[in-house]
Write the structure tokens for this entry.
Amino acid sequence: MIRMISTLLLLLPAYWGMTQVDTLRLDLDDIINLAQMDAPDVQLAKTKFKTNFWQYQSFRANYRPRISLNGTLPDLNRSFQSITLPDGSQAFVGRSLMDNSVGLSLEQDISLTGGSIFAFSGLQRLDIFSTGGNPGTTSYLSTPFVLGFNQPLFGFNQLKWDKQIEPLLFEESNREYTEEMEDVALQSTQLFFDVLIAQLNVEALAKNKADADTLYAISQGRFSVGRIAETELLQIELSAMNANANLAEAELNLQTNIERLRNFLGLKTVVFFSLTPPLEVPDFTIDPDAALAYAIKYRSEMVSYERRLAQRQRDVAEAKSQNGFRVDIFGRFGLSQTAGQLSDAYKDPLDQEQIRVGFNIPIADWGKARSRIEIARSNQELEKMNVTQERISFEREILVKVQQFDLLRNQVRLAERAYDVSEKRLDITRKRYLIGKIAIVELNIAIREQDEARRSYIAALRAFWIAYYELRRLTLYDFANDKPLIREAGN
């Protein structure tokens, strides 16, 4: 039976009159590999993963020191400006100066406290041009170093929560990429069998048409000598006409499914697929507990549950920090000096200090802060219940799929045996009809039963392989090769 199906599939392009079109002779693994290399859905998945990757790199940069060089070279000002004189009156005075400055700064955020520290070193030169007989002057202001910090108290620490949540988001996106690749494998399997079933239908209906034409020709001879009634001849003629109509419909369906598969693979040229059915069903068994353990270890849902709970916990912390009570502490210490010569600007620098404490204490907000906190807590409890229910459903789905997988394998074997039996019965029935031992009704019944058995066998085969790739997608584990499927974009 396997040899017969493979041989007839190889003859399909010639029968279809498509010898001028490239024919791709592929099996299921070939289709999946071809799709996972360059299908449009794969390109979208890779682009999405790269976006998530660079978002994660941007997050990591927030915890590294920021170094910057800034300056003004030059700031020239020749203008009249209003100034306040010693007696309190206003007057317009001409100014002519140039200010040049350069500085190097270093800043580091502290995720543990939500504050930041900074360091700075800079030099400023001020040139006052001569005007109205006043001689020009040049002075320097040096700042060898300044150290400082800025620390909010009782506020929301965004850095702390990002450090907990962003790695989960990245890990989730990494697993989602693998899941999307397995989705491509699953869709490839579905489209593969759509084309394969359509091809087998064309092959079977073409054979039925040839048999129907042969029977009609033989029956015409029998009718001419009075061996069969006219009603039987008309029934055979109707069967031949139905065979022609069914074949035309099957050819149209094959064209449609080939086009869908070609578009899914992203093929630009018109091709014909000659597909080899995966008739060999693997014998390995899947332990339900092991499958569930793989799913818990590799699936994105597990990371998603943790991330969603952490986000709700963050929302509660943010709501609590928005009660209006806030204290900010700012401090800095440094050395500086000014002189008319550059070398003197670094002699005996003077220290400078600054401490600032700011606070905000709400007097009355009429329960607004408490409402925000209670809403955040309610959402947190709701998320906990959703995650618990979703996890139970997910684990149940894994166990059910594993149980169905073994049943589907047995169903394939039973369907294959039924198909073999129906073929033998049809062959015997056809020979008996040709020698006049049985009526056409019995032959039609045998043809119909053989066609139903063939369809049932291919349908069982399709259900088995779809179930296999569904299990791969649900567990992210390759049971055939005994290895996980987690991959990076580009691999």
Confidence is low (pLDDT under 50) at residues 1-19.
